[in-house]
Specification:
Shape: elongated
Structural class: alpha+beta
Number of domains: 1
Order of helices and strands: HEEEEEEEEEEEEHE
Radius of gyration: 30 Å
CATH superfamily: L,D-transpeptidase catalytic domain-like
Mean pLDDT: 82
Strand order of the largest sheet: 1-4-3-2-13-5
Length: about 200
């Protein structure tokens, strides 16, 4: 009698579990709940590339670029207004050191010296091309590198928005690349003649 009760109990248990499984299949899936601190749709945040605290300050803007740190410090009206990583020229294309000023500003600018070479189909065949010195295939042409928020300081050297591939390390052909957000801020905040100091 005990054995029959045990078998009946086991059969009942199996049927109950099967019924639960079947009813679970009919229910809609639970919604995905994200933690307030973790966004599942975005990659982890990278390093902070710049900070701007000069929005409430007034007065002329000055920029000091430290090549050894690959950082620039900005002041406005003599008070600290922010800092930013930069990517200056590599050892083969060094950024000049000295006291300069902003001589030209252009929101949209392309390099006349460095860029890419594309073939007749528009495919890039040289990603590190120098205008007039790199081979160009028949039907192809040179395309100057984009340099948004251009601020010329010395000859063909200027500050502009560009990639900072390894914060703290040089990466350019001589110009001072800035994170795009800071390049736009600096472009709007500076006037022609604003002093720019580049130190080793």
């Amino acid at each position: 009698m005990i054995q029959i009760k045990q078998i009946t109990f086991r059969i009942g248990l199996v049927l109950a579990v099967a019924g639960m499984a079947s009813s679970c299949r009919q229910l809609p899936p639970l919604p995905l709940v994200e933690s307030p601190r973790v966004r599942l749709d975005q990659p982890p945040a990278g390093p902070v590339l710049y900070e701007w605290t000069g929005a409430e300050l007034t007065g002329p803007v000055t920029v000091t670029i430290d090549l050894s740190e690959q950082k620039a410090r900005i002041s406005r009206g003599g008070q600290p207004a922010g800092w930013t990583y930069v990517a200056s020229g590599t050892s083969s294309h060094p950024t000049p050191v000295g006291s300069f000023s902003i001589k030209e500003k252009a929101r949209y600018k392309r390099s006349t010296s460095w860029g890419v070479v594309v073939d007749a189909s528009g495919d890039t065949v040289n990603r590190n091309a120098r205008n007039g010195r790199s081979a160009v295939p028949s039907g192809g042409h040179f395309v100057g590198a984009s340099m948004p928020f251009w601020m010329r300081i010395n000859g063909a050297i200027g500050m502009h928005a560009g990639p900072i591939p390894h914060p703290g390390s040089p990466a350019s052909h001589g110009c001072i690349r800035l994170p795009r957000g800071m390049a736009e801020i600096l472009f709007e905040a500076t006037q022609l003649g604003a002093p720019v100091e580049v130190v080793p």
